[in-house]
Design goal:
The chain is of the alpha/beta class. It is 28% helix and 22% strand.
């Protein structure tokens, strides 16, 4: 549950003037960054979407609304395929190319950059973290394996991130439940009964709003401890 100190007051919530958007040309096409600026930033949290949605995903939107009040500028990154209006994501190699292309813009503020994303975006963050010099990795709904195919594990990508890593995973995620994750240097936070999109059933003990608080509280705490 969120605490009073972790809830931004109305005056702390970024106004529309604190949100800017820019287009970045990459070798995979034009990407787009929507910046949610912190007043006194100490970190940049750059997060991208998955293969089946955009930056309007509930977890990404919640982070963009909450983190700036805690000194973290949030950069929501739209991959070129999404900006171009395509419905199907390209191969992982092309996603990595798009992420590399936006990285110089993400480091422009001169602050440590936490590389992150949800689902396919989390895989990209893990694969490129060391190469790009990411300060840490935030993996939201990491797709540990395709649904029903645990033998096709992607654990190597997560374990190979090479930097401090926080995984936030739904308790009922068909792409990998928390208990399926291997032990490693990463920290894992479970959102009880949530699915891959962090939606919770109506009859769950946790409301949808409370589920989002679990995510944002975990990221606020984790980013506060990064050195």
């Amino acid at each position: 549950m969120t605490t009073e100190s972790e809830v931004p007051s109305e005056s702390e919530v970024p106004s529309e003037s604190d949100v800017t958007t820019e287009t970045i040309t990459t070798d995979a096409g034009d990407a787009r960054i929507t910046w949610h600026h912190a007043g006194r930033p100490r970190l940049v949290l750059a997060v991208s979407h998955g293969a089946g949605g955009g930056i309007e995903a509930r977890d990404l939107a919640a982070l963009a609304a909450v983190l700036p009040a805690h000194g973290v500028t949030v950069a929501l990154v739209e991959q070129p395929w999404r900006v171009a209006g395509k419905k199907v994501a390209p191969a992982p190699k092309t996603l990595d190319t798009g992420w590399r292309g936006v990285w110089p813009a993400l480091t422009r503020p001169g602050l440590p950059v936490v590389s992150g994303g949800r689902s396919a975006g989390a895989r990209v963050a893990c694969r490129t973290a060391v190469e790009l010099g990411a300060h840490a990795v935030l993996a939201l709904s990491f797709p540990l394996h395709p649904p029903g195919k645990p033998e096709k594990s992607r654990a190597g990508e997560l374990l190979g991130a090479g930097v401090p890593t926080l995984v936030v995973q739904g308790g009922n995620d068909p792409f990998g439940k928390p208990a399926e994750f291997p032990e490693g240097d990463h920290e894992l936070v479970e959102v009880e009964r949530a699915d891959h999109g962090f939606a919770v059933p109506r009859r769950a003990d946790l409301t949808q709003e409370e589920a989002l608080h679990v995510i944002t509280d975990a990221v606020v705490r984790w980013t506060a401890g990064l050195r």
